[in-house]
Amino acid sequence: MVAVPQDPDTRRAIRAFARAHHPDVGGDPEVFAAGLAELRAGATRDRYDAPVVVVHRPRGIRGLAHRFRDWRARRTRPPRVR
C-alpha cells in the first residue's frame, strides 16, 4: 500500500511531477520511479501506523445469510405517509 501524503503542497508537487515525467507522456520510466520515490519519502507516513485488525467473515451460505441480514439492518426506509 502506498502512503498518500496529507500535506496539500506535497500532493501538488507529486501531481505536477507525475504530469511532467510520466512514461505515458514521454518521460523516462526510471527517472519517473526514482523521482516519485524521492517525493514520497519526504511525505509523512503516520496515516498508516494503526494496528492491523483481522475480522473473521463466515463463508458459504452462512456468510451469505450474515451479509443479507447486515444489509437489511443498514437499509433505511422512508416513513410511509398516508
How would you characterize the overall build of this protein?
By secondary structure, the protein is mainly alpha-helical. The protein has one domain. The protein has helices at 8-21, 29-41, 60-74. It is elongated and about 60 Å long. 0% of the residues are buried. The model has no long low-confidence stretch (mean pLDDT 80). This is J domain-containing protein.
Domain module tally: 1
Q: Could you give the order of the helices and strands? A: HHH
* Cα-based radius of gyration, to the nearest Å: 22 Å
Gap between N and C termini: 52 Å
**Average of per-residue pLDDT values:** 80
Name the shape in a single word.
elongated
Q: Which residues sit in consecutive blocks of at least 5 with pLDDT less than 50?
A: none
Largest sheet: none
* Range of strand content: under 5%
Number of helical regions: 3
Helicity level, as a percent range?
40-55%
Structural class, judged by helices and strands?
mainly alpha
Could you give the count of β-strands? 0
